[in-house]
Design a protein that fits this description.
Elements (H helix, E strand, L loop, with lengths): L1 H10 L2 H30 L14 H12 L4 H13 L5 H24 L10 H14 L1 H14 L8 H24 L1 H7 L3 H21 L14 H32 L10 H80 L3 E6 L4 E4 L1 H7 L3 H4 L4 H5 L7 H5 L3 E9 L5 E12 L5 E10 L1 H14 L1
Antiparallel strand pairs: 1-2, 1-5, 3-4, 4-5
Length: 467
């Protein structure tokens, strides 16, 4: 508890608070600068109507900033969105509403994605890409579109041909900004690891091919067929296959940038219709290109992860099989060793059975655990009858001294009077050895008894004759 209090105190030092404050201010400045620059770029498209741009890259910057740095960057988003629109001819009240709506859209998107516990901002899986597209690009952008278009309508600022068309262009423009810009910012770290060595050369060739192809379609060439716009698709697929989500994001951004530039200057296949129709065609092209690259890259990532998991499981399985074989060999070795020990013990037991003396083993609770043939001959009890019984129950030993003094010794020798099965008395010369376990605790006794009954009777007869 004391250490946690000291840690909290260290974090609360003025230097730490100042460092956190500087970091927060830097984050706000970066988000403001990026959003403001992207917003000015979006409004610079010539066929923008009353600040409703068909492509709004600032929306992608806002979503990525909230996912990377958290909700605390929302003031920078709101102020940058307000300032971008305030510097245009629309009313100030509409600029304030647009700033709040754009910031709220990004915050709601970040909240919903962060609330999903399994969402990963680096977009390594197909589910992460689909969540970003569904939540950030499709759902929450409707909030910014509703607030912005409603504010323009209430301030009598006419956009496009009416509320419905303006709302659709605003919504698709924000969605395209999220699809094109957010994945690039979220996978920025992957770009460093992907573009290395020979892959850097391959990536350079790929980017040049995308730029040349896009310039040929949306440049000064007389390309008027809408289908020809999708000639860039093979290069987007190449980027997704070789460089995954980061490569697909870069390819989508480049192709979308050239397409927007060419369409804005009257080049390419999306200039043959009304401005509204051309804007919708451009948005569809950007959406299909970006979605195809991102989803394909995510699918390839999933397949690689499954393949790596399969290889890992296969390796573990082979190691498990090798372990089983080693364990089998060890078990066989231990079994052979145990069989040898059992055979040795059986041989030793036979040797004990050859002895004339009665040899038996008693456990710590005075239960017989071994009974040789000599004991059978001396006492009349068979091994089967004696095992598990107490010695006092079978042979009724009479001790010459206190038995506790005998049990307390490691070795003892002396004469005992015992009883056979038929009730007759027998005198034995007994030798005891205490058996101990690995902890040194008494586990039983080994007792060897020699029948001296005849000798004792002879000695008594001799003493009687001598008297």
């Amino acid at each position: 508890m004391a250490s946690s209090r000291s840690l909290a105190a260290d974090r609360g030092t003025p230097q730490d608070r100042a460092r956190l404050g500087y970091r927060y201010v830097l984050q706000l400045a970066i988000v403001f600068a990026l959003y403001f620059g992207a917003g000015k770029l979006g409004l610079a498209i010539p066929f923008t109507s009353s600040n409703v741009s068909p492509i709004w890259p600032a929306a992608g910057i806002a979503v990525a900033a909230v996912l990377i740095w958290g909700f605390q960057v929302a003031p920078a988003i709101a102020f940058a969105a307000f300032l971008v629109n305030f510097l245009t001819p629309i009313p100030t009240s509409a600029s304030v509403a647009i700033g709040l709506g754009n910031a709220s859209s990004a915050v709601v998107a970040g909240y919903l994605l962060r609330r999903s516990s399994d969402f990963q901002t680096s977009l390594p899986r197909l589910r992460d890409v689909l969540k970003l597209v569904t939540v950030a690009a499709v759902l929450t952008t409707t909030l910014a579109a509703f607030v912005g278009v409603t504010a323009l309508t209430l301030t009598h600022t006419k956009a496009w041909s009416g509320y419905g068309s303006a709302w659709r262009i605003w919504w698709l423009g924000d969605a395209m900004g999220v699809l094109v810009v957010a994945p690039l910012l979220l996978t920025g770290r992957d770009l460093i690891s992907v573009y290395r060595g020979w892959r850097l050369l391959e990536a350079s060739v790929l980017l040049i091919a995308i730029l040349v192809t896009s310039a040929a379609i949306f440049g000064g060439a007389a390309v008027r067929d809408d289908v020809l716009a999708f000639v860039v698709f093979p290069f987007v697929i190449w980027a997704a296959l070789r460089f995954r989500v980061a490569g697909a994001a870069v390819a989508g951004l480049l192709s979308a940038s050239v397409a927007v530039w060419g369409t804005a200057h009257g080049y390419g296949p999306f200039v043959n219709h009304s401005p509204l129709h051309n804007a919708v065609l451009l948005q569809i092209f950007v959406a299909v290109t970006s979605l195809t690259g991102l989803i394909l890259a995510a699918v390839i990532n999933e397949r690689e992860r499954i393949g790596e998991a399969f290889e890992t499981e296969k390796k573990l399985l082979s190691e498990s099989e090798a372990t089983k074989e080693r364990l089998g060999e060890l078990v066989r070795e231990r079994t052979l060793e145990l069989e040898r020990n059992i055979a040795q013990l059986a041989y030793q037991a036979k040797l004990l059975d050859l002895a004339n003396d009665a040899i038996f083993v008693r456990s710590a609770d005075d239960r017989i655990t071994y009974w040789n043939e000599g004991a059978e001959n001396l006492y009349g009890w068979t091994k089967k009858e004696a095992l598990g019984k107490s010695t006092q129950e079978l042979i009724h030993t009479e001790f010459p001294t206190d038995v506790s003094s005998i049990f307390g010794q490691d070795r003892w020798e002396g004469e005992l009077r015992q009883r056979r099965r038929d009730g007759s008395q027998v005198t034995v010369s007994s030798r005891w050895t205490t058996l101990r376990d690995h902890n040194g605790k008494s586990a039983g006794w080994l007792e060897i008894n020699t029948d001296v009954t005849a000798r004792k009777r002879a000695e008594e007869a001799a003493r009687g004759l001598s008297g």
